[in-house]
Design a protein that fits this description.
2 copies of one chain form a homodimer.
Chain A (H helix, E strand, L loop, with lengths): L8 H10 L4 E3 L22 E4 L3 H13 L4 E4 L16 E4 L6 E5 L4 E4 L5 H10 L2 E2 L11 H7 L6 H4 L6 E7 L5 E5 L11 H5 L8 E8 L1 E2 L3 E9 L2 H13 L6 E6 H11 L7 E2 L2 E2 L2 E9 L2 H17 L6 E3 L2 H12 L1 H8 L2 E5 L8 H12 L5 E7 L4 E8 L4 H21 L15 H23 L17
Parallel strand pairs in A: 2-4, 3-4
Antiparallel strand pairs in A: 1-2, 5-6, 6-10, 7-11, 8-9, 8-10, 12-16, 12-17, 13-16, 13-19, 14-15, 18-20, 19-20
Helix pairs in contact in A: 1-2, 8-11, 12-13
Chain lengths: ~475, ~475
């Protein structure tokens, strides 16, 4: 394991000289900085935290830490779910939340340049005011764009628009040595050497610190319509999804969820939005589908064709949300799944697997039957359109150590099934601290060795976000 | 520089044991294997060539070469334009053209799995027969998919559908050590460690040899319509492009070209397709725009709105190609630009720059005025919708050395302008042998050092396609 140094009072003074009035140390550090939204993977406070304001400040902090072998961990809004921003080796935490300016738009070339601490929600609203859509739409709207890029977040609209990766044009990066460089450019395409931009995307703050981003926008669609589609059971619900994708109707989002998680979410919201019984049949599962287009009238034929297809496939009904109020209501329940679970649960873990869309039913049946062997209960929902499932293991009464042991056993089997189906162990949350072991099992020693080698090239002293994605040499 | 060994008769015998009847050596090697389509960057024959049939054969060949420090260069169809597949250090050339099987489709999950020697044209036709479109559409239809992925080729439809990168889901790779691994998977998205898949895409055969690919397809659009749009001059022609993109009409392709290159191409085809005078005004430049949709009738409103916009922006006319015959004719002239130039030219070099779409007029004016200082003539055309320009320096009467010296001076200045506009030195052709110096100037020493470091991680003995993308240490 690399030998790290502890922060001395002299070094804290030097940090203070770089970022006057924006350094905290020891017990004064914000306790939130010891964790993200999934504390089950461990909490650990940094020795000092810096509220950075600029690329230059971050470069100076990193250079200081590089010279003194001090770990550096970057944190956005801390909304991650794998412990990715937890400074497990101590050292300095750099918070980017005050680097929250949208710097400029190029509306002719459809790009926006911004600081990494801008929140997703902030960009979404601002882009819309400029007539543009930033397509990636992760559930957590209070995440930073820097964090989104670092985990290649994706969310609801991935079916039509892809993941964050597809919208990153360029970035300014502080390397672990303190050098400042840039990857990519604002143009549409490139074949100019190894794509360091794509290597940075999804690297979870282990290769460099993103200090500025240029992102791609698209013209905002003139109209958006969602369909709420109840089914009697999950199997016919999911079986409809490939047919929707083959139809050429090009939905923006296809979410699925079962009755139980809807009840959890509606209890949290204290509001019932979705129908629970249709013509005497109890609803077992739902699709929530969104289409966008130039205008409501231009979407008429699409909606009609979609409704026909859905009813032919066994939908109990097709409810249309075509006003802002109805859209907001339909999506509020979906957006509160995690909050609903968190409110009801004391011990919580999750996975973020991706399987081929057509294998979702088989996978969910497997997960349900597997879970019967354990004492926790399962809740899940997912992006049906792209095969990305969020499966939560929840308990309010288990012993913590017992919960951890059972979840580990469960996850090991679940990930093995994921890989057997040709899937991925994380679709959008990343590996962070929580999924290290499973990544190694999933991609194999050869690929892990390549990743470790790349890490060493960027970060010869291994100071940047140590103990993430893969273990430290003697972790 | 790494110390390479020459092939001995014993090693050739061992190659023959791996690929019986498919090894040639010395003077028996196909002379085409010494060059690609741009021989100005130098030709160099390999010591032996292997017509590989499988991943296992390639792994065995690479392992043998790794053990004996012998350079290995992979070649697809040899249609590259930067000398990328030229075995400049000799050694073994592996040709993938006989690995040309389309292995399987997964029509529910919209993927196709194939060998790397499948040709673009072969996949396009076969996918269409399966109701699917493979969106990337480089001009050179006889390129292999392995080559397309290795240069992140893009082509005409990039405006709407992106580059090859966006359609690569997974690949099997033989590493320079002879190990076989796989990157990516057939699912829609991932955040599972460093993205080795994206690192391989565009790495021009320097990090590993692609032996199998899983590519993403989309449902084939029901209808395609192209518009031929003549303008009096280039400036209003190009100025229309951002407006088209902002219109929300979502064209699949927006190509531009000037009168001169059209005349070259039509002379080559011995056929006049495009109008040269409209109502007494001589045509100076053209846009060739394609839209796709579910049906011809569904495209009516789009075509009408596009025509209105184009005429308001100064188009002299809008000619509609809405039958297969008319579409083929409209695109035949565009597709023959390079062949037309090649037929007329003895000394030829080119660049493949990308600039922001709105800067194309400024850039072209600069290139034209710069070219006045040299003895060669310029021909160019480009993907207006994504700012990618192919600029050819052509001469039939210059001394070769003088041509090379003048082109180098011209390119150095042109690339400097490219970078000043926030562009990239290659959009889709790659760096290969021909653009090494300019890449280093463009991305800087820090980024080149990272790329070299990555190369070393994958290829510790530097045997794979040496002398490409960046120079050998003492090149």
């Amino acid at each position: 394991m690399p030998t790290y140094q502890s922060l001395t009072p002299e070094l804290i003074t030097q940090l203070e000289a770089i970022a006057p009035g924006r350094v905290t140390a020891g017990p004064d550090v914000n306790p939130d900085y010891a964790r993200d939204e999934m504390p089950i993977y461990g909490t650990h406070a940094p020795e000092a935290a810096v509220e950075a304001l600029s690329t230059e400040e971050i470069a100076a902090v990193v250079k200081l830490c590089y010279d003194h072998n001090i770990p550096v961990t970057t944190r956005g809004a801390g909304t991650g779910l794998v412990g990715g921003c937890v400074p497990v080796m101590g050292g300095v935490l750099i918070s980017t939340t005050r680097m929250n300016k949208i710097l400029s738009y190029d509306l002719e070339n459809f790009t926006v340049t911004l600081q990494p601490g801008v929140l997703l929600q902030q960009l979404a609203e601002d882009a819309l005011a400029h007539g543009c859509l930033y397509p990636p739409d992760p559930g957590e709207k209070l995440a930073t764009l820097g964090g989104n890029v670092s985990t290649n977040a994706s969310g609801m609209r991935g079916v039509k628009y892809g993941a964050t990766r597809d919208y990153v044009k360029a970035m300014t990066v502080v390397l672990p040595t303190g050098e400042v460089t840039s990857f990519g450019s604002a143009v549409s395409k490139t074949s100019s050497g190894y794509n360091l931009l794509h290597l940075m995307i999804g690297s979870e703050g282990t290769l460099g610190i993103i200090t500025e981003l240029t992102l791609k926008l698209i013209p905002a669609p003139g109209a958006t319509i969602s369909l709420v589609v109840p089914f009697a059971a999950l199997a016919p619900c999911i079986a409809t999804v490939p047919k929707l994708r083959q139809s050429g109707l090009n939905p923006q989002a296809i979410e699925f969820f079962e009755r139980e998680i809807l009840l959890t979410s509606e209890a949290y919201l204290e509001k019932q939005v979705f129908p629970r019984v249709i013509d005497g049949t109890e609803v077992g599962a739902y699709l929530l589908i969104t289409f966008d287009g130039n205008s409501l009238s231009a979407l008429d034929a699409t909606i009609e064709q979609a409704a026909e297809l859905l009813l032919a496939e066994g939908a109990l009904d097709v409810l249309v949300a075509d006003t802002p109020a109805k859209l907001k209501e339909a999506w509020a329940a979906r957006s509160s799944f995690l909050e609903g679970i968190e409110e009801q649960t004391t011990l919580l873990d999750e996975c973020d697997v991706v399987v081929p869309v057509t294998r979702i039913p088989e996978y969910v049946v497997y997960a349900d039957s597997l879970a019967k062997h354990y004492d926790f209960r399962l809740q899940y929902f997912g992006h049906a359109g792209d095969g990305n499932l969020h499966i939560y293991t929840c308990s309010n009464d288990m012993d913590r150590e017992e919960f951890l042991a059972q979840v580990d056993d469960f996850m090991t089997k679940l990930y093995a099934k994921t890989m057997a189906l040709g899937g991925q162990i994380s679709g959008e949350h990343g590996i962070g601290r929580g999924k290290i072991k499973y990544l190694a099992q999933a991609v194999g020693e050869t690929n892990i060795a390549l990743m470790r080698g790349i890490k060493q090239v960027f970060d010869p002293k291994m100071i940047l976000n140590p103990g993430k994605i893969f273990s430290l040499p003697e972790d």
